[in-house]
């Protein structure tokens, strides 16, 4: 998949990487069991420090997305992580904030749900391919 | 006397090739680079930019040709090895100063026009390329077996012919084919040529390997097309490395056969080596012009050029007239050159710095040792 890193973004690079890999998995651009580039290769190609890539890989490993094999490097797990109770709490907190922020800005429930629907539909479409 | 004239002429031709390369430089560099300075691609067609390119060419001809004549006359009349060796460096220095002058002008233009505010901040890379670059981006390493076989043939020839060698083994010939240097017979003398061949193979294999490892650089403007072009570029150059190595090894094997007394026709060897040099030089020129740096000059069939994202503005990471890459935050060691075609090192990394100054150390040691 193509990774796009914005060097001027407020979001740290390791977080940009993490999110894009998660999105890549959901769209199917990254397949289950696929090997990711080594820390050295990816860091070199993006032009960033190896620790940054390492950080992303470790976070994704702790979240249950990756396994890090001593010889083969980072690989996407064959089975994706489940929505644990901890995750549900986090999701609700985030949504609570996002929905509030949206409502303050005049986005009503229908519009908000429409946006959610659009992204979900996009994923199922691309996932089927 | 005749040989001397040929040597000087050969040197003149070498310098002339350097001048021609300098003139072609803007044509083979990436399309968004103007003398080391990143310019938005769509601005490259403006009159200001065209005038800079024209001015560069005119000035290089006006300075480069007289300098070429003066240097050639000097080395013809002053019979000194130092002068001869230095002449190439002096000429390169003159060409570099010319480049730096126009690099400065390009920087000024960029600022004057406010193009320095347009640069993007986004880098795009492909994970598959990053992971499988060995399989994806170059021709197979197995092709190196061909030159290796040539070396083996040469070595076997040396070993089987060793007992038949005379006490004084010819190692050098003048242009007419008369022996002008001998070495005492020893197993080392017999294996000198195969050892040289091994060294050549190592040097070219290392270059191939560095190319393989070099950083992925694709244009966020059109990542898919840019990636395809980059893969064509790398495949073509890796094939070029292997073909070049094979040709050189064949040539050295013939040279070895001359040392061993199997083959004696100097004329045929001269013609043969001339053709090989020609193929190697012309091949690199053609590849450079047709593909451009990073494959940027390749035209793909179904390419749409409508996206307007700007490539990242990394001028500040390129020092000394935008020729040397210094970025301690970048973990890659080998990156595309900013001007011309090929790769360079990141001197922001200790190993990169070492590789950058290594040739200079070698030159100094040679100048001190070889008097």
Structural key phrases:
heterodimer; A: 129 residues; mainly alpha; two-stranded antiparallel sheet; 5 helices; globular; B: 371 residues; two-stranded antiparallel ribbon; 10 helices; 9 strands; 61% helix; 8% strand
Write the topology of this structure.
The complex is a heterodimer of chains A (129) and B (371).
Chain A: E1 2-6, H1 13-27, H2 39-46, H3 50-62, E2 66-69, E3 73-76, H4 85-104, H5 109-128
Antiparallel strand pairs in A: 2-3
Helix pairs in contact in A: 1-3, 2-3
Chain B: H1 2-28, E1 33-34, E2 37-38, H2 47-77, H3 81-112, E3 122-126, H4 127-131, H5 133-136, H6 145-161, E4 168-173, E5 179-184, H7 187-213, H8 223-259, H9 266-291, E6 318-319, E7 324-325, E8 334-336, E9 343-345, H10 350-369
Antiparallel strand pairs in B: 1-2, 4-5, 6-7, 8-9
Helix pairs in contact in B: 1-2, 1-3, 1-9, 2-3, 6-7, 6-8, 7-8, 8-9
How is this structure best described in words?
The complex is a heterodimer of chains A (129) and B (371). Chain A contains 5 helices and 3 strands. In chain A, helix 1 packs across helix 3 and helix 2 crosses helix 3. Chain B has 371 residues and is mainly alpha-helical. Helices cover 61% and strands 8% of the residues of chain B. In chain B, a hairpin with a 6-residue loop joins strand 8 and strand 9. Classes of the chains: A mainly alpha (129), B mainly alpha (371). At the A-B interface, strand 1 and helix 2 of A face strand 3 and helix 4 of B.
Brief rundown of the structure:
The complex is a heterodimer of chains A (129) and B (371). Chain A is mainly α and 129 residues long.
What is the spatial order of strands in the main beta sheet of chain A?
Answer: 2-3
Element pattern of chain B in H and E: HEEHHEHHHEEHHHEEEEH
The percent of residues in helical segments of chain A reads 55-70%
Q: Could you tell me the number of beta strands of chain B? A: 9
Binned strand content of chain A: 5-15%
- How confident is the prediction overall: mean pLDDT of chain B? 90
Quickly count the helices of chain A.
Answer: 5
Count of separate DSSP helical elements of chain B: 10
- Structural class assignment of chain B: mainly alpha
Low-confidence stretches of chain B: none
Fraction of helical residues of chain B: 55-70%
Query: For the report, how would you describe the main beta sheet of chain A?
Result: 2 strands, antiparallel
Arithmetic mean pLDDT of chain A: 92
Gross morphology of chain B: globular
Note the run of SSEs of chain A as H and E: EHHHEEHH
> How many beta-strand elements of chain A?
3
């Amino acid at each position: 998949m193509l990774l796009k890193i914005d060097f001027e973004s407020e979001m740290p690079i390791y977080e940009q990487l993490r999110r894009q890999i998660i999105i890549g998995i959901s769209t199917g651009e990254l397949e289950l069991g696929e090997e990711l580039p080594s820390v050295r290769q990816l860091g070199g190609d993006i032009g960033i420090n190896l620790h940054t890539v390492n950080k992303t890989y470790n976070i994704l490993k702790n979240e249950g997305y990756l396994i890090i094999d001593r010889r083969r490097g980072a690989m996407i797990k064959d089975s994706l992580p489940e929505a644990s109770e901890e995750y549900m709490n986090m999701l609700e907190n985030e949504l609570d904030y996002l929905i509030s922020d949206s409502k303050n800005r005049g986005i009503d429930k229908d519009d908000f749900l429409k946006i959610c629907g659009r992204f979900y539909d996009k994923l199922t479409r691309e996932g089927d391919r | 006397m005749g040989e001397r004239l040929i040597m000087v002429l050969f040197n003149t031709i070498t310098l002339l090739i350097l001048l021609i390369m300098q003139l072609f430089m803007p044509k083979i560099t990436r399309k968004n680079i103007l003398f080391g300075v990143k310019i938005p691609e769509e601005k490259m067609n403006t009159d200001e930019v065209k005038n800079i390119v024209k001015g560069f060419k005119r000035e290089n001809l006006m300075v480069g040709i007289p300098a070429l004549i003066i240097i050639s006359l000097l080395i013809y009349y002053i019979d000194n090895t130092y002068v001869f060796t230095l002449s190439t460096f002096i000429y390169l220095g003159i060409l570099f100063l010319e480049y730096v002058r126009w690099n400065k002008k390009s920087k000024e233009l960029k600022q004057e026009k406010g193009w320095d505010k347009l640069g993007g901040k986004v880098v795009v890379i492909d994970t598959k390329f990053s992971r499988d670059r060995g399989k994806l981006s170059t021709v197979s390493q197995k092709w190196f077996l061909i030159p290796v076989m040539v070396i083996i043939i040469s070595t076997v020839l040396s070993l089987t012919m060793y007992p038949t060698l005379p006490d004084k083994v010819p190692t050098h010939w003048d242009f007419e084919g008369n022996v002008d240097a001998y070495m005492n017979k020893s197993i080392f003398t017999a294996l000198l040529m195969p050892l040289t061949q091994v060294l050549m193979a190592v040097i070219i294999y290392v270059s191939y390997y560095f190319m393989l490892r070099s950083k992925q650089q694709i244009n966020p403007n059109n990542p898919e097309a840019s990636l395809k072009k980059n893969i064509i570029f790398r495949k073509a150059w890796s094939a070029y490395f292997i073909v070049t190595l094979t040709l050189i090894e064949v040539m050295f094997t013939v040279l070895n056969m001359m040392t061993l007394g199997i083959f004696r026709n100097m004329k045929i060897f001269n013609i043969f080596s001339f053709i090989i040099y020609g193929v190697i030089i012309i091949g690199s020129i053609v590849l450079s012009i047709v593909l451009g740096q990073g494959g940027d000059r390749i035209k793909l069939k179904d390419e749409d050029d409508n996206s307007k994202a700007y490539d990242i503005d990394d001028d500040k990471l390129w020092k000394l007239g935008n020729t040397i890459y210094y970025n301690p935050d970048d973990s890659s060691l080998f990156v595309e050159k900013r001007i011309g075609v090929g790769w360079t090192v990141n001197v922001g990394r200790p190993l990169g710095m070492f590789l950058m100054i290594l040739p200079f150390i070698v030159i100094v040691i040679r100048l001190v040792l070889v008097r």
